[in-house]
Amino acid sequence: MKGYTLGIDLGSSSIKLSLLDIATGTAAAAVTKPSEEMHIDSSEAGFAEQDPQMWWGYIVEGIKELSARFDISDIRAIGISYQMHGLVCLDSAGEPLRKAIIWCDSRAVEIGREANAALGKEFCLEHLLNSPGNFTASKLAWVKRNEPAIFERIAHFMLPGDYIAYRLSGTPQTTFGGLSEQILWDFSEERCADYVAKYYDIPLSLIPEQHPAIGIQAYTTAAIERELGIKEHTPISYRAGDQPNNAFSLNVMQTGEIAATAGTSGVVYGVSSLPKADSESRVNTFLHVNHSAADPHYGVLLCINGTGILNSWMRRQVAPELSYDEINRIAATAPCGSDGLTIVPFGNGAERVLGDRLTGASIEGIDFNRHTQAHLLRAAQEGIAYSFNYGVEIMRTLGIEPRVIRAGKANMMLSPLFRQTLATLTGARIELFDTDGALGAARGAALGAGIYSSREECFGELRLLEVVEPCDEWRKTLTEGYKRWKKIVENKINEK
Questions:
Q1: The pTM is what?
Q2: Which of 120, 142, 199, 479 is such that its CA lies 20 to 30 A from the CA of 407?
Q3: Domains recognised in the chain with CATH numbers
Q4: Residues above pLDDT 70, as percent of the chain
């Protein structure tokens, strides 16, 4: 079949759009908006908000840029990937009532703790596989408690990707996986966890209808055809949170397969056929994109908020004149272990891997007579890799052993130093592929619309770029550095 599918990847730093050439199975074009990182509003410590209309504006810009080079009317299906756990509140006219409370906002942590105690920790672990924590339903409960006038006007609440689908289709809806991201899915009973909404006194009528992640969910409107040139009745046939979508993008679909990403946040995501819960909810379980009751697939997700954002902070504050490629080169001139300089990256909101604690980032052991810009830049990348390894240790207690980690060659995975450090710490081979979230969403759209009939056809052109093996020469130094880093982190946890 000729034509394209459109993938939209809504992140917190940028929005990427990709056109997949259906006939060749390869990317025809890609656009990133804006040219600089999107602004995150933080009016108080732990707050993080973005304007949903800003997201839509950049998507419109991106589609119009693509339309200057391609016939947009040849788009056959649309897939959407999005930042998980955010909250968008719309009124009856479909207009946002407030800025979106995004994934790294930690204002609802205490509300989630109260719910966990009230519903029962064991009950939550058995049925929700997580504590209510800082997920979307808890954020909505915060709005109800603190902004009652706004809450009373809410006609629909949804995830960021649901909002983009709504702008394209005019239909308020979510996915079953989306419910699990919002802490509104009962894993043991395979249904909406309406009791969570009832506990928070959230009317069930506010929860949108649900669809599978892969499959036709809605269709674009005539208004979209007039505005953007995408034909009316084009199917929206794939929707997933950024981390399940990253795994899908890498063809991670079956039990034992592992995906990783290191953008603003860092994630290791493993697929299991059994619903598992960490007793402390430091890692989380969601429905994977190909889950069904008859053929269950669960994604066990380790997320560290303060990873790539530490690297970008270091660039702004320590090396503003340098590109990321130059930073990677200079960091590699410092010795492995950074001469004892240790950086803890947890400075971007409450961390699930630390039990929803807001410990903050820190730089430890700095020596003004020895340490240089290169040491700081390397220590940042090593600190991020240490945080990944910390979470992998937790995942191992759930029976997930990452012997091979698949990742897109993007963001921090562009750094040879970082990926070699990560491989050495975890003992896993890292396989880097030529893909990203937007291209993955475009592949998902083709699979969901039936344009591709199988997983094999969908991923036939996925290209392996590089394999990174652990470095024996670095192993001892990094193991010692990790022990030092872990002691600092555990002291921070105990202080809180």
A1: 0.86
A2: 479
A3: 4-245 (3.30.420.40), 304-432+466-495 (3.30.420.40)
A4: 100
